[in-house]
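WARN retry 2 of 3 for item q-0093 after timeout on previous attempt; input resubmitted unchanged.
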Amino acid sequence: MSNTTDIIEFLNKLHPFQDTSKEELERVVEYLTTKSLQPNEYLFKKGESYHKTVYIVQQGRLEMHRQSGQMLALEIGDFIGLANFMDASSYLSSVQAITEVKLLGLPATELQELEELCFPLFEAFNRIIAKYIRDRGNTNRPITSHALCLPARNIMKSPLATCGPYTTLLEAYELMRKRKIGSLGVTDQKNKLLGLINFISIADAMLVQKANSDTPVLEVACKKDNTVNPDTPMWQIEEIQHDQNLKYVIVVENNEPVGVISQTDILNNLLAHQGLLFNEILTANSFSELSTFYQKIDNVANEAWENNHRTSAAVRNISEFHLALQRRCVELTLQEMEDDGLGMPPTKYAFILMGSASRKEMMLNPDQDNAIILADDLEDDIDKQWFQTFCKRVNVHLDEVGYILCPGNIMAKNNMFHKTLKQWKQQISHIIHLPNKKAARWAHVFFDFSLLYGDDDLVTNLSKHIIYELRQNSRLLKMMVADDAEGQAAVGWFNRLVTKRDESGKGKIDIKRNGLRIIADAARIYALKHGIESRNTADRLTALVRQGLFNLESIKSVNASFEELLELLLEHQLYQMQNNQKLDKLIDPETLSPLHYESLRMAMRTIKQFQEKLQVEFDVVDF
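OK item q-0093 returned
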């Protein structure tokens, strides 16, 4: 084996191990083996039994020939056999050396022990798993949308506002403030890009680095930001911004800045390609017309999927379509009430949606989960009757449009979900201070709520009340964790997928109950505990990182798993709709490609670990 110091230095340069201490790396090195391959020699072939080793490429290049026919180049720093490590399955691909190759081997038994005892190593493998799932999604799904294929030159703002390297912090700040822009490129005398500055980097320089206002930007605030060339397609730019949490990307040609692209630029470009139908919904004049729009959900979903590289973004677009229909349905109901001589609302109110609708995670056939918050000045029985009539009509009309009545009667026409702000606060205070199992399940449904129509102040007021009460008594959160634990990730011993037989006898996985809901539940509980106002699951996970509550890389693996399951579910339901089948959330793993199968298994493993972390933190074992 090579010198220990050299190997530690090599591992430390690899992204998965960058946050691992020298002591932890020394523990890893103790178990390492080495292996050499000559050009054209196989490391293993498809169908060959698992070597019980995870390999790291230390030198040379290899090719992985997947069962699908896809060829993947493997280079220095890549991990080989990680999927097989999870369940000791036989190899589904073949790996062949292209040049002379040197490999480091981590024996599976020791690796499993290290992963359990060494948290940094556990985090390192989460990073690898997240990258694997993301890469699988990036290579497996073709980009066909015209909007996503547009090159950077078509959407960039040009020219990029710039300043010289010796511009002071104060001068740069004044320039951005005067021009009402959020960033400046920093260039040299030959107009070559040196980096980017923005308000945040200036604030960091002055508050953290204690720089003076007359300090040149190049010394303290200039950051070499990500750059793309003018031909880079929009989907790649969006992916760079998402993965690295960048607000701006600079477009360069021959290292000279020619433009800048912000997250808002990409969003506006996508909206411009899908806004026509939304405008038609806003002007619909009847519930039957809205029903006609609802029947186009498969077209809307397909377009959203094509126009967004990440499935979570596509699902948000699908949700916005549903929300637009439901808002217009409320507006038409209000008009109907007035036309019938019942007048307008006698006081302020907030018609709210709960669950996936609130999180903007609706799929193709959501049912109704709604409620109403009424202002506390509601006293007259006639006024109360107005709102009872209004809610009944809204629920009936939503059903006519396509949103079926909630089987559990979680709707605004039900008095249990039809209260004044004061009554809602009293009920919530009661269940938080005297919680039980039923209350915990109810909280999982109701605590994800957002405004559909009406007065947002009522929604904000109630949301703040919930956060305040939970800070006084968190026992309900613990019960919510226990309730969530009744649904488990679909992975068992040796990280094998666990299925349940349906009526036909086929083993299937409920992607929502045994995957997506677990992530959503955990994100909700953490958000409630830490006062995070976001509703969307991905937004909540991002907020947890920003507050320093989670490591970025561990959340990346959870986000990647969430994306993988969303993609499987959306693709599954689109197929069912196109083939006139009843929509469900049950996936048969045996119908998946080997690549999809491996990604699903890795995703379920990540979800299981995320759920276990939640349970340990809230001590539900002894609950």
